[in-house]
Amino acid sequence: MIGIAVPTAKGNRAAVAGLLIWLAVVAAFSAYTVFGTRQRGSGMDGFLLAMFAILGGGVSLLAVMVWPLNKRATRMSLLIRVIVAASFFGLIGVVRYGSYLYSRDQEEAKRFVESRIAAVRASSASNAFPATQDEFVNHQALPRLLRNQKFYFYDGGSDFHIEIRVDFDGWWRYTSNRPEWMRST
User: Fold this and answer.
1) For residues 105 and 145, what is the distance between their CA atoms, to the nearest angstrom?
2) What is the mean pLDDT of residues 160-167?
3) What is the three-class DSSP state of 172?
4) Cα–Cα distance between 154 and 34 in angstroms, integer?
5) Handedness of CA 55, 59, 60, 61 (dihedral sign)
6) Do residues 62 and 81 touch, judged by C-beta distance below 8 A?
7) Which entry of 9, 99, 123, 143 is 20 to 30 Å from 164 by CA?
8) Residue range 148-168: average pLDDT?
9) Region 57-82: what's the mean pLDDT?
């Protein structure tokens, strides 16, 4: 039996430990992408992540199909390779879920702005709008998408416009002259 390696328990433990480390890295990266970034994995970042997932998953699946031809492959090593391939493809789910959350963030930001506009209109007899964003917000908790962003622009008197930055170069815009949300292309 020359050339055929017998798997050892120590080798299996190392492979399982490596797999657990890989899964922990993928889970941490996924959590950061969905909960730690502003766009939550949508937009161009999500596109690149999805391409990485497809390429990495395809290469991993190819490795699963080619390496079993080697007689040294054990069931454990095949299982580990399949799990690694599946983890790459799982990143596509991260992108989809992140995109869903990001669209919810946009709707939440628009609802917040609409409620603040209604509150300002109800409290002002002269129908004048605040001159600064801080006055417009009035110490209210900002939605996730609006935090650390300049979104309120005072144009004088009762004129203002709101710009909520989204995606790479897009925005939602609401103006006092045209009180409806418009999306840039």
Assistant:
1) 6
2) 86
3) strand
4) 33
5) positive
6) no
7) 123
8) 86
9) 68
The segment with the largest mean pLDDT, out of 11-15, 131-135, 167-171, is 131-135
pLDDT grade for 38, boundaries at 50, 70 and 90:
confident
pLDDT for 4: 41
Angle formed by the axes of helices 75-123 and 43-66, nearest 10° = 170
Domain boundaries, the chain: 9-102, 103-183
Among 181, 48, 150, 38, smallest CA distance to 101 is for: 38
Rounded to 5 degrees, φ, ψ at 50 are: -65, -40
Task: List, edge to edge, every strand of the sheet that includes 152-156.
Answer: 152-156, 159-166, 170-175, 182-183
* Residue spans of alpha helices (H) in the chain: 9-31, 43-66, 75-123, 133-137
Q: Is the pLDDT of residue 111 over 90?
A: yes
Q: Are strands 159-166 and 182-183 parallel, antiparallel or unpaired?
A: unpaired
40 and 102 Cβ atoms separated by less than 8 Å: yes
Global confidence as pTM: 0.72
Which is more confident, 45 or 98? 98
Alpha carbons 150 and 160: distance in angstroms, whole number: 13
Q: Choose among 73, 95, 98, 101: nearest CA to 11.
A: 73
State whether residue 154 is helix, strand or coil. strand
Contacts with 54 (C-beta within 8 Å, 6 or more apart), sequence order: 88, 89, 92
